[in-house]
Hints:
Helices cover 30% and strands 17% of the residues. By secondary structure, the protein is of the alpha/beta class. It has one domain (2-49).
Amino acid sequence: MLLVIHDSGHQRAQIRAAVEAVGLFGEIFEARDGLKGPRILLEKSVVVCRLELAGLGSSMESRPVD
């Protein structure tokens, strides 16, 4: 499973297409901002996001979640 967080729907679509082409993840979820992402993240395993998320006012780094 993969969660992609980005406020741009176009950017999310590009990331999703690139990841789907590789075929590493069975499920890909999307969130449009840093407030919705963590809600989904509670049940998912990996995050890919930009460094600054709308709605949080701070920076986050992309990282795997244990």
